[in-house]
């Protein structure tokens, strides 16, 4: 978008990172309580944006993360461990995405080295928390 151009508010409907949901609505959508969402914020798994009035606002991306945390907690995983698991899952997904991207850029798609028996891969680890959207897993 050009500097100074106004964004069409309807564009926010397709934006996974747009903080469209209030805490109450977010909790209702994922079948949990506002207290659970606050606990995820305290554990720094998700960081909701704040409205002008200071109210927490959640994006669809953050709701997917919160739903995954709820799933793990419902299975008996302590919330701190659930948060760590989600961060590690996010890092793994980002590392796999980067590896695939590097393989596509490399002549032969990285298959030449693997076929030659070197066992070496074209990529590496994520090296840190994956971004994956505003206020998502591993941010903060």
Task: Give a short account of the largest sheet.
Answer: 3 strands, antiparallel
Helix content range of the residues, please? 40-55%
Oligomer: single chain
Task: Write down the secondary-structure element order.
Answer: EHHEEHHH
Q: Radius of gyration over alpha carbons?
A: 19 Å
The end-to-end distance, rounded to whole angstroms, is 28 Å
Instruction: State the secondary-structure class.
Output: mainly alpha
| Overall mean pLDDT | 80
Explain what you see.
By secondary structure, the protein is mainly α. The chain has helices spanning about 25-30, 35-40, 60-75, 80-105, 110-115, and strands spanning about 20, 50, 55-60. Helix content is about 45%, strand content about 5%.
List the helices and strands and how they pair.
Layout: E1 21-22, H1 23-30, H2 34-42, E2 49-50, E3 56-58, H3 60-74, H4 79-105, H5 111-115
Antiparallel strand pairs: 1-3, 2-3
Helix pairs in contact: 3-4
